[in-house]
Amino acid sequence: MRTEAPFRHGTPQKTAVLLVNLGTPDAPDTPSLRRYLREFLSDPRVVEIPRLVWWMILNLFILPFRPKKSAAKYATVWTEAGSPLLAIGHQQVARVCEGFKDRRWEVKVELAMRYGNPSVASKMDELRAAGYDRVLVFPLYPQYAAATTASVMDAVFQWAAPVRNLPELRFVKHYHDHPAYIHALADSVLTHWRAKGRPNFDGGDVLLMSFHGVPEFALLKGDPYHCECHKTGRLLAEALGLEKSNYRVTFQSRFGKAKWLEPYTDATLKALGQAGTKRIDVICPGFLADCLETLEEINQEGREDFLHAGGGEFHYIACLNDSDGAAAMLTEIVAQHLQGWPVDMGYEDAMAAELAASRRLALAMGARDGQST
Ligand SMILES: C=CC1=C(C)c2cc3[nH]c(cc4nc(cc5[nH]c(cc1n2)c(C)c5CCC(=O)O)C(CCC(=O)O)=C4C)c(C)c3C=C
Ligand SMILES: [Fe+2]
Ligand SMILES: [Fe+2]
């Protein structure tokens, strides 16, 4: 148990939300990748192989080779603001803060990464030191998986173990079928179709929904991830008015030799290309933010697989990122989970927020009027 500051009576009740995503290396270079992959792949939630056997495989066969290859891939998607996953995460935090201001809510929003920086423990420490006595932990994965969502929960419990005076804690488990999530996804597809034209589904075009894979044994051992991905796929197809033959649900990013959830995205892309499919649109609904797995694996490698195999047009539909749909959805889901916790601003802050909101509205209307002339 750690030594803590003495308890004080009468401290105001404050609420915080911690958005958590997977994590990313600090830089697209081999040492950073080795550090990141060591932490990520040492998590027993991620690789469920007996520890001693896995320790040998990881240290003898993976960490000497994979970091260099992965660093080269990260370099192709790295931006001036750093890793896309982290940079977009910060934008998402800003959008949720805006959403709260509009609701006249005073809720602190922070971002943490399950692996790498900023760590879950460092953010929980900061929140506790600043007196946040209620924390909603929101793993940003729409579909629950032990390898991702439960691992975020583990990180919070590990942080909590030596703490005496714990904050109240809540967790979002998943939102794979939340109407605001499905609506945001459908809206992003429709926006893409408005800009690029709607695929000719009667002519065999396909909307491919690619989710990150997990080993097949996870499904057999009771992990709901596979079912939740399929439910998201079905609800998105319904929202778009698609027939079953118009879309596919596939799984990407296979790691290691075991059988993973099928059908695999890369094999499907090649098969669709070989079948002479004229156009496919690819969306990755399981990723809230664009990252290596979407920008490199799908939009670069997947595109090449499809076109090389003889496919026609390849369209990549970006993740929800910091879109209005993502902002509305995140704010809505957080609001539902904060019920009963103190969130309201004091009078003066509420007035300032009112002013800022009317300024934003005036600016938006000005921009709209400017566009239409
Ligand atoms: C969206 C959900 C994710 C699940 C489920 C998931 C499971 C999972 N992943 C690996 C191995 C790797 N994943 C890597 C990158 C990566 N994975 C996710 C998301 C899920 N992973 C994201 C968002 C990212 C990208 C992070 C970024 O910085 O952009 C990597 C690292 C990259 C590489 O070296 O290829 C590995 C390795 C396993 C083993 C697993 C489930 C059991
Ligand atoms: Fe992954
Ligand atoms: Fe299933």
UniProtKB/TrEMBL annotation:
Q: Which SUPFAM superfamilies match?
A: Chelatase
Give me the reactions it catalyses: heme b + 2 H(+) = protoporphyrin IX + Fe(2+); Fe-coproporphyrin III + 2 H(+) = coproporphyrin III + Fe(2+)
Q: Which PROSITE patterns did the record assign?
A: FERROCHELATASE
Its EC number(s): 4.98.1.1
Q: What Gene3D superfamilies would the database entry show?
A: 3.40.50.1400
Kindly report, in one word, the top-level EC class recorded for this enzyme. lyase
Q: Which InterPro entries match?
A: Ferrochelatase, Ferrochelatase_AS, Ferrochelatase_C, Ferrochelatase_N
Q: Where in the cell is it found?
A: Cytoplasm
Entry keyword annotation includes Metal-binding: yes
Q: What residues bind Fe(2+), as annotated?
A: H212, E293
Q: In which pathway does it act?
A: Porphyrin-containing compound metabolism; protoheme biosynthesis; protoheme from protoporphyrin-IX: step 1/1
Record key words, sorted: Cytoplasm, Heme biosynthesis, Iron, Lyase, Metal-binding, Porphyrin biosynthesis
Q: Which domain of life is it from?
A: Bacteria
The similarity comment for this entry is: Belongs to the ferrochelatase family.
Q: Which PANTHER family match?
A: FERROCHELATASE, FERROCHELATASE, MITOCHONDRIAL
What this protein is called in its record is Ferrochelatase
Organism of derivation: Limnobacter humi
Gene that produces this protein = hemH
